[in-house]
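Dock pyridoxal-5'-phosphate; give full complex structure.
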Amino acid sequence: MISRTMANDHNLRIYDSILGLLSDADNPTPLVRLNKVSPFKHTQVFVKLEWYNPFGAVKDRIAANLICDAEERGVIKPGTKLVEATSGNTGLGLAMIGNAKGYKVETTLSQEIPQEKRTVLRFFGANVVEMDDSLCPAPGAPEGAIAKARETAEAEPDTVLLDQYANEANPDSHYRTTGPEIWRQTEGRVTHFVAGLGTCGTITGTGRFLKDQNPEVKVIGVHPEEGHDIPGVRSANQLQQTQLFLPDEYNGTVEVSDREAYDLCLRLNREESIIAGPSSGMALAGAFKTVPDEAGTIVVVIFPDNVFKYASSFQRHFPEFCPTDATGETGETAGPSKNDQFIAEMMENLKNPHDSVRAKTLGETLGEPGAPLIVDVRPADMFAETRLPGSINIPQSELSERFGELPEDRDAPIVMVCGIGKFSKPTTLYLKSLGYRNVRSLKGGINEWVRKGQPTE
Ligand SMILES: Cc1ncc(COP(=O)(O)O)c(C=O)c1O
């Protein structure tokens, strides 16, 4: 009943404040069955929609618990500044709970984080510090987002790093909420639990609770490939340095490529009408690779957040959905800044047919006289795995020292290549700035090349 001191009522869904909407066993996020994209005949697949948390992602749970725990330990009080390294979602949760409880929030993050997230973080009132770091802040990166957050907390008075990457309050939040919700929603019949791996708080906390109820529950972690483009999660190498990554507590882990993750993300939206984000597609692809198709099998997959923060990511993986080539399409937003205009002109320059080449066009020149020199700017280990025939490898970070290996002739045809076309563009510009006049970037990178059925070595 509405009153000045009313309690939250989950049945009537009326709340004393937005914080009342934080999920727990009495107010679980929805569990939805998949009916179209599942390859299984017997196994039932349920997905847990974490964007039903008040600020749009699974990380709202840990943000709330990191703050509650620190308040209980007397480490913070309203007015304290919270600084945190994030791939976006934890920062969004902390910023909104900070607004509600009186904490200033500063987030350190990678420049590669989708623009949508960085803009909304600022919109929520967070001070955003952008670093040259990988999508999910790289553990142990001296110049990275995590080191920067630690440095700020040490240097500034009344500033605290809650540290989602090492704080037990992270998995504890899932032990207290996500686990009990799944157990109650499946009436204790869940047999497999699958989650993507970032800080590993979700899988470790939820896995512990479910195994405490039934040790037979299988817990499976899903991670992206090296050099991936899926915000919020960590590759196998990065996980090796992740404190909360405890593979002995899981029954297995599996790798999923960007292509698999984004394609399944698309199918979820198109066929199941579920607005899942890229890391949800990744987690589900991992479940399809590992969970057996047997009667009585009930798998629950965590879907951390939804599509609306990833339009710029989709632009890279589904260029066909973003007809920015069609002049006039991008006229909507009024008053781009001078800087945006300059970058747009520069990128437009790169988009004109002379500065980027399509896979099919390049494929037709392979082995022909006058064929371009193909320079692959990805890390050596990725080049070793798969590459264009006859291409040479100069990782982006080594280009400035090794450009001596490029042709003397500044009119020599050169094509720059990377995974999805994100790094080949700036390196094309770099070579242009060195005077190369016939250098282009492979549109869509190796991903598009393989998708178009072109040969690789
Ligand atoms: C979009 C997204 N997916 C997955 C994860 C991984 O969750 P966890 O950090 O609990 O492993 C995160 C974490 O930030 C995320 O933001």
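Observed: Confidence is low (pLDDT under 50) at residues 326-334.
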